[in-house]
Design goal:
The chain is of the alpha+beta class and about 180 residues long. The chain has six helices and six strands. A hairpin with a 2-residue loop joins strand 5 and strand 6.
């Protein structure tokens, strides 16, 4: 994928399909390492499936016989001097963690986290999201549970709310969340 935020979108959509109720997204840029971690409380995976999950021919999709999201993310991380790790336990959830050398020529750009989060929230599902973004002196947390309290019954997928979310994340992350 051209931007890491699209990888985040893909992984989080898998979390939603796995019936996660909360998804934690950590994006931490520190000491020339960009770490992206996505953790959910969904169904999780069996050890057998987990051992094959980075094989493109291992997928739960019924519309096609290949799943390229995790294999491509693993390849992108390794090509950019980083690492890929996935841990999962049935009934407890899954955590995907990747690292990238920030200054590596092959590291894809982070992309637009504000746009990614607004797309996820626009699905109208009952999943809560916690985005934690750390870059230099910035330590920003966006939590949909807190926003829902403030909205007092206004749906999160209203166009005005989605625009607010996108702009709020862009304004509170260096470079608009683009790295």
């Amino acid at each position: 994928m051209r931007e890491l935020s699209l990888n985040i979108l893909d992984i989080v959509e898998n979390s939603v399909k796995a019936e996660a109720k909360i998804v934690y997204i950590d994006v931490i840029a520190k000491d020339n390492v960009l770490t992206i971690s996505i953790k959910d409380d969904g169904k999780g995976m069996s050890e057998e499936f987990l051992s094959r999950v980075t094989d493109p021919y291992t997928t739960t999709r019924t519309t096609r016989k290949v799943g390229m999201g995790l294999p491509f993310l693993k390849m992108e991380a390794e090509m950019a001097g980083g690492t890929f790790d996935i841990r999962s336990k049935l009934g407890e959830g899954t955590t995907v963690t990747t690292t990238f050398a920030i200054d590596h020529i092959d590291r894809p750009p982070l992309g637009d986290l504000g746009e990614t989060m607004s797309i996820l929230i626009s699905n109208g599902d009952e999943v809560d999201y916690v985005l934690h973004f750390v870059f230099n002196e910035t330590d920003f947390v966006f939590d949909t549970r807190e926003l829902k309290e403030q909205l007092d019954g206004v749906p999160m997928d209203e166009p005005e709310v989605l625009l607010f979310i996108k702009n709020y994340i862009r304004e509170n992350t260096p470079h608009g969340g683009l790295l």
